[in-house]
Amino acid sequence: MVDCASVVCPELRNTFENISLSRRTVVRRIEVINDELTHQLDTASRDFVWYSLALDDSTDNEDTAQLLILIRGIDSTFTITEELLSMESMKNTTGQDLFECAVDCVETRGLSWDRMASITTDGAKSFTAKNKGMVKLSKDKLTTENPGSDVLSFHCILHQESLCKSALDIKHVIEPVISVVNIIKSKALKHRQFKSLLEDLEAEYEDVLYHNNVRWLSLGKVLKKVWALREEIIVFLDMKEISCEFKTKMGCEE
Fold first, then answer.
1. Which residues have C-beta within 8 Å of that of residue 132, sequence separation ≥ 6?
2. Which PANTHER family does this entry report, sorted A to Z (predicted)?
3. What is the pLDDT at residue 73?
4. In 3-state terms, what secondary structure has residue 59?
């Protein structure tokens, strides 16, 4: 950091040299940042009219089970807050263990159960089991404390969105876009020339993105960038005298 300061702002080199970067100092500063972020989330959560939880458990490289709890809440001004609520280390991952961990987290942060709108989990039996799953136990607790209340439960909501996307017939949009992206990025020289053109034209984006079926969430970003750069792409194709379906769809060829 001091070396960078010597180049960027040499007059402040002494100031940077006096900044303590010892291990304990860095840890202490991280703890202060964590406390501040926690305080901000707790302050925002007090105003939630409704909130939802998303939970997922995984095992780290030390074979320790980690439960991630994310929260998304909305207040009376329709301000949406979405944050990581907690990450808890667990010895066991039965439905009861997950439920108790979630309850402890929710109640420690001062959240009200009667304002919970939904719970999203993966398909693990410890979450979705009919009688002893974490979701079932959470619904039972809510019903006991607030008779007549219920909470919605979702399973792998991103996967559901993926299935919905697969049902849409948008090949006439996707195929020309993927084709023109492949034309641009398939050869290193052509790709460098395209990026140079975007830089010269001061385009909104510096490049286009690849898309593949495995990373289906990238499709929206791919389409967005290609649409924003459609004029620059057509200029590049004209310069290279390349004919393709993308130009036809854009009405640039007879």
1. 94, 95, 96
2. EPM2A-INTERACTING PROTEIN 1, GENERAL TRANSCRIPTION FACTOR II-I REPEAT DOMAIN-CONTAINING PROTEIN 2-LIKE-RELATED
3. 92
4. strand
For the record, the structure tokens of 88 come out as 């808890």
72 and 123 both lie in a single domain: yes
Domain boundary among 160, 191, 206: 160
Q: Return all residues near 137 (Cβ < 8 A) that are at least 6 apart.
A: 95, 96, 99
> Tokens 């997922």 — which residue?
56
Nearest-CA neighbor of 21 among 33, 29, 11? 29
Same domain for 150 and 198, yes or no, is no
Domain total for the chain?
Answer: 2
Q: Quick check: 51 pLDDT over 90? A: yes
How many whole angstroms from its chain centre is CA 136? 27
pLDDT in tens, 166-219: 677 778 888 888 888 888 888 888 889 998 999 888 888 888 887 665 555 677
Q: Would you state the pLDDT for residue 72?
A: 92
The answer to pTM > 0.85 is no
Please give the share of the chain, as a percent, with pLDDT higher than 90. Answer: 12
| 74 shares its domain with 153 | yes
Residue 98: give the domain boundaries.
Answer: 46-160
In a domain, residue 39? The reply is no
Question: For strand 65-75 and strand 80-90, is the pairing parallel, antiparallel, or unpaired?
Answer: antiparallel
Same domain, 96 and 127: yes
116 CB-near residues (< 8 Å, 6+ apart): 50, 51, 52, 53, 106, 138, 142, 151
